[in-house]
Amino acid sequence: MVTSLTVGVTAMTYGATAVHGGLPFWLPVLLSVVVLAGSAEFVFVGILASGGNPLAAAFAGLLVNARHLPYGMAVSDVTGSGWRRVVRSHVVNDETVLFTRGEHGPEARDAAFVASAIGISVCWPLGALLGALAGPLLGDPERFGLDATFPAVIASLVLPSLRERRVRAAALAGAVIAVSTIPYLPPGLPVLLALAAVVVAAVRQ
Amino acid sequence: MSAALAAAGAGLGLGAGTYVFRFAGATVRRRLGLGARAQRLIELSSVVLLVAVMATAAVADDQRYTGAARPLGVAVALLLAWRRAPTVVVIIAASVATALARIVFG
Predict the structure, then answer these.
(1) CB contact under 8 A, B45 and A195
(2) Is A162 in Cβ contact with B51 (below 8 Å)?
(3) Do A6 and B86 contact (CB within 8 A), yes or no?
(4) Residue B1: its pLDDT value, please?
């Protein structure tokens, strides 16, 4: 599965970056299992590596991960109830929501969620471990353009959802809001601000 | 050693907090039994969030904008995705375009 491989490659970058920043190899691996959300882990590790305190790092990561609340709502049909929900909640993130979005009908959505969840649950921690251990040997991922793979995967998988004009308009507006506020807000907030476009869409209905 | 412990503790806290977001999201919709309109807005929210994540990841690291190479690569990805290219092609093309642009533009 291509996305799993991409996740694995990104994970290796993540693990290598953490170790390069002076952090012990087990930390990115621990986070990759316990948090399982790339962007937040990058931010957390970045703050620690630059000397920030762990509490600040955790709060920054939580801000980045606030989007998992609407994510959980978006896939609540798949997460279900009872023990299934307890287990499945943990693997709700960018990738599984992205994959599940592309499918319609309960069985297809369930299959997509489970498949992507297994893929990232294996590839993300494994990649983080490999990256953390082999980091210095890998060289600079930016040299190979690997930093573009994460947004490229989202582009490939989210585009079908943008065929409807209303959705496209909201997404574009949200992207503009998010990108323009980057220098002024801590990581995580620009993305959350994009939801203002959804509020506008809701009010205009 | 205590710095490592603090880091691990903070990491576990991040994991726990993230899980609360996830579980709450998964739970609240079922509990409230939200209607079709709310459902559409929730789905719209997930798309808007994903596009915002893509856009911010394409142009910046944390609070700093990157050079033109990565946005260019992501633009290539969007173009190919629009032309319904397979994901594998999109990703490879984006990486290659980014790497080349970096060589050319620095």
Answers:
(1) yes
(2) yes
(3) no
(4) 59
